[in-house]
Structure formats: C-alpha cells, structure tokens
C-alpha cells in the first residue's frame, strides 16, 4: 500500500511512524519542505515538493493538515482516486463534512476518519463490555480529557475559525465515544469557561435511552499535563479508568444471584500504540473490503453534536438534536 501523508506536523509524524511500522510505502508533503525532509529521513520516506506529485504516488492519502484545510484536500484526493484517512475533526461544519463524505462516495473511494480514542485499549475494552450487555442498561457515562493549550495557545488551534475551538477539536473525542457507547443523543447542554488561552468546558448529553453523558474537557492545565478518565455506570456494574492510574482497568460487578466483588478486566498494558492499531484497522478493512469501525455517518453525528455543544456554550441554552445525533 502506497500512503501519502500530507502535513508533517505533530500528527503527520505520529502517522508516519505508524504506517512505517506496518511496512507501508510512505511519502510525505508539507508546505515546509525542510521539515518534511527532516521527518521523513529516519523512515526513508520520499518527500514531494508538490501535492500533485504526492497524489500521483499514493493509493491512500492521509490528511494530517490543520482542520480548516481538510475539506479541500479530501475532495482533491478523492478526485485523484485515492482512498482517504482524515484526522479528526473531519470538518468545521456539518455541511463541509457531508460534502466530503459525498465526494468520496461519488469517486468510489473509502473514507476513514481517525477517531483514535475508539482504538485506545481502555476505551475499546469498556465499549466491548457495554456491547456484551455486562453492565446492563447504562445510566451515567462520565468522561474527562484535559490538556494544555496546543502550541502554547499561539497557533491555528487558537483560532476557532480554523480549528473549531476546544469544544470541537478536543471534546469531539469524548462526544464521539459517548455516542458510540450510549447511542443517539436528543439534547446537549454545555458551559465553557475561558481565561486567556486556557479554556475548560462541561457538556451534558441526554441520550435517547435516558442515559446521560457528562463530559469534561479543557485546554486548561499547565503545559505538559494531559489527563483522561472514564467512568461508565450501568444497572449492574461500573467501569472506571483514569490516566493517573493506568492499569489495570477496574470493573466492579454488582452481585446478581452470586457474590461478585470487584473483577479486573484483563491486564492490557498496550504492546502497540492506538494510532498504529487504528491505521492497521484501516489497512485490513481496506484490503479485505470490510466495514470500518468508524463510519462516516457516525462521524457526522458526532460532528453535529459537538457543534451543538459549542452553540449551547454560547447561548447558555440546551440544544435539541432531534433524532439525528
Ligand atoms: N487524533 C488526535 O489525537 C489528534 C491530536 C492532535 C491533532 N489532531 C488533528 O490533526 C490535524 C493536524 O494537527 P497537527 O497538530 O499535526 O497540526 P500541526 O500544526 O502540528 O501540523 C500541521 C502541518 O501542516 C502543514 N501545512 C499547513 N498548511 C499546509 C498546506 N497548505 N500544505 C501543506 N502543508 C501544510 C504545516 O506546515 C504543519 O507541518 C488537525 O486536524 C488536528 O485537529 C488529532
């Protein structure tokens, strides 16, 4: 598989490492040619000075550009007949996202959006446990993801018109996970606090089942700190995990006719990083014509919910999502 990565920044480097680990033939394009060369060197990846050069040399285009540039590149890659991996958020608006999905469908190429949280072992195990019905009906899902402002708060990330802002860029991860776990949401309410470059928000999703997801997110911590956590409670059990106490994931099962105390899920110290797991999944599904674990329709649903959360944080009012998110 020939993979062309566009964007040699933070994510471009991570994807390059992951593709190389799978033996893919990788090439790279970035407007900063020097940086692209420097990054590609340890992997022997070719560097193209132009996007057109890369498109002619790839079966798959991996979009690692800043978010405001995703639409243009995804459409261009699709027109060139390349399958597409696109970093999240897919787009800055639902309209853009739908146009990108359609462009790929029209061109007969496949689109995979890199919602990597679904590939973190802790999050995937928790999801599988819920899917097997072992927790019973879900009541409350609590998710936390707080880091520091990217690039010290002085880059395209800080410009909501280019990144979507923290609610879209960062909290989308957990909004997507909550919808994947607990199903469609009917209502979203959000509060955002901002002091300079640091911001912190809380989002409440009310799912169609009646379950609630309480999501905390921020570019709020001192530089260098990043904390994530999950806490999923159902009728019959609770799963909790925090990046402060990485392993094992603990599961507390309520007694149902037999005495069950706490049971730990299998230890899963990850032998492989989730970015690689996710791209391996893409490659296998593409090669064998299998469905992706992240579908474009799910991605659009999450985008809709994250944008509604941002709207709620501005108006102070809950936003109804109808049946679509
Ligand atoms: N999945 C995750 O956990 C995760 C984490 C961080 C970022 N992201 C997403 O990944 C994407 C990229 O983020 P990043 O942190 O790597 O950004 P970055 O700013 O570190 O890198 C962007 C790169 O794109 C290049 N670039 C900009 N405009 C270009 C153009 N017109 N043509 C060619 N190259 C161009 C820049 O030179 C830079 O090297 C964003 O959508 C972001 O939201 C996802």
Automatic annotation (TrEMBL):
- Domain of life assignment: Bacteria
GO molecular-function annotation terms? nucleotide binding
* Pfam families in UniProt: GFO_IDH_MocA (PF01408), GFO_IDH_MocA_C3 (PF22725)
Instruction: Write out the transmembrane intervals.
Output: none
Instruction: Give every Gfo/Idh/MocA-like oxidoreductase N-terminal domain span.
Output: 1-114
Where does the record place the GFO/IDH/MocA-like oxidoreductase domain?
123-239
Matching InterPro entries, A to Z? Gfo/Idh/MocA-like_OxRdtase_N (IPR000683), Gfo/Idh/MocA_Oxidoreductases (IPR051450), GFO_IDH_MocA-like_dom (IPR055170), NAD(P)-bd_dom_sf (IPR036291)
Q: What is this protein called?
A: Putative dehydrogenase
Instruction: Give the originating organism.
Output: Deinococcus peraridilitoris (strain DSM 19664 / LMG 22246 / CIP 109416 / KR-200)
Organism classification, top ranks?
Bacteria, Thermotogati, Deinococcota, Deinococci, Deinococcales
């Amino acid at each position: 598989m020939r993979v062309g990565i566009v964007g040699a920044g933070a994510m471009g480097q991570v994807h390059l490492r992951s593709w190389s680990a799978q033996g893919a033939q990788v090439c790279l394009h970035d407007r900063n040619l020097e940086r692209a060369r420097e990054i590609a060197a340890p992997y022997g990846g070719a560097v193209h000075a132009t996007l057109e050069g890369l498109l002619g040399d790839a079966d798959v285009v991996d979009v690692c550009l800043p978010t405001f540039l995703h639409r243009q590149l995804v459409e261009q890659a699709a027109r060139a007949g390349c399958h597409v991996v696109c970093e999240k958020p897919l787009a800055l608006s639902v309209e853009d996202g739908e146009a990108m999905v359609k462009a790929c469908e029209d061109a007969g190429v496949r689109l995979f959006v890199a919602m990597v949280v679904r590939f973190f072992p802790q999050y995937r195990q928790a999801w599988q446990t819920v899917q097997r019905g072992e927790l019973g009906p879900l009541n409350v899902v609590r998710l936390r993801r707080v880091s520091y402002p990217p690039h010290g708060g002085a880059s395209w990330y800080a410009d909501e018109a280019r990144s979507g802002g923290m609610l879209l860029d960062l909290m989308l991860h957990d909004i997507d996970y909550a919808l994947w776990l607990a199903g469609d949401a009917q209502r979203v309410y959000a509060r955002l606090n901002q002091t300079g470059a640091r911001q912190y928000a809380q989002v409440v999703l009310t799912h169609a089942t009646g379950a609630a997801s309480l999501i905390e997110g921020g570019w709020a911590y001192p530089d260098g700190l990043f904390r994530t956590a999950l806490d999923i409670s159902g009728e019959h059990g609770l799963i909790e995990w925090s990046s402060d106490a990485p392993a094992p994931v603990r599961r507390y099962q309520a007694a149902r006719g037999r005495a069950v105390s706490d049971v730990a899920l299998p230890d899963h110290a990850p032998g492989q990083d989730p970015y690689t797991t996710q791209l391996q999944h893409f490659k296998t599904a593409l090669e064998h014509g299998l469905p992706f674990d992240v579908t474009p329709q799910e991605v659009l649903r999450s985008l809709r919910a994250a944008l509604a959360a941002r709207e709620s944080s501005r108006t102070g009012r809950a936003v109804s999502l109808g049946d679509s998110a």
